[in-house]
Predict the 3D structure of the following.
Amino acid sequence: MHEWDTDTRVDATGDGRFTAHLTDRWGSAGDRPNGGYLVAFCLRALGEVLPHPDPLVVGAHYLRPGVVGPARVDTELVRAGRRLSTGEARLTCGDREVLRVVASYADLGAATGRTAVPGQAPDLPPPGECVDVYGGLRLPGVTVADRVDLRAPEPHGWARGRPSGAARAEFWIRFADGRPADTASLATWSTPPRPPSWSSA
C-alpha cells in the first residue's frame, strides 16, 4: 500500500463516524500537518458514505491547525441524487474541530455528452526533461516535501534565494512513491490529473 493510502486511512465506527491518525510525514511549515493532507481524511470518509465515487466540488474551511495524533471524522449525507451527492465532513483533533469540508461527488466514469474544460494545462517540457523544484533543498519540518516529486524547467527562484516576485508557479507533481493520482488524492495537491501518474500545476 502506498504512503498516502496508509497515512490517510479512516476506520468506520458507525453512524457516519470514523477514526483516523494524523502522522508527521505530511508536515508543512510550523511542524503542522499540511492542509491538503487534512482534507484527504474528510474526502476518504465521505467516499465511504456517499453513493458516488468521485469528489467533483470541494469546499474546505480551516478552523485551526491540525495536530499529529488520533483524530475523528464525522460525516453527514446532505443530499443524494441520481447523478450527484453532497455531504459534509468535520475533522476533529482531541476535542477541537480543525476542518470542515462540504463536497459534492459524482461518477466521472459515467459522464456522457459534452465536457467543458476551462483553461489549459501549463506548456511544460516532459517531466523527464525537468529538474527538481527544490534543487536539493529541504526545509526543516516540511516533511510533505519528501512525499512528492516536483519537476519544473528550472528550480524556482525562492529555492535559489532569488524569488521572482511572480505570484505563480508551474511544475509537474506526483507522489514520490509512484502512487497514481486519482480524484480523492488530487485535493492533497489541488492540481488536475495528467497521465499516467503526473499532474501539472
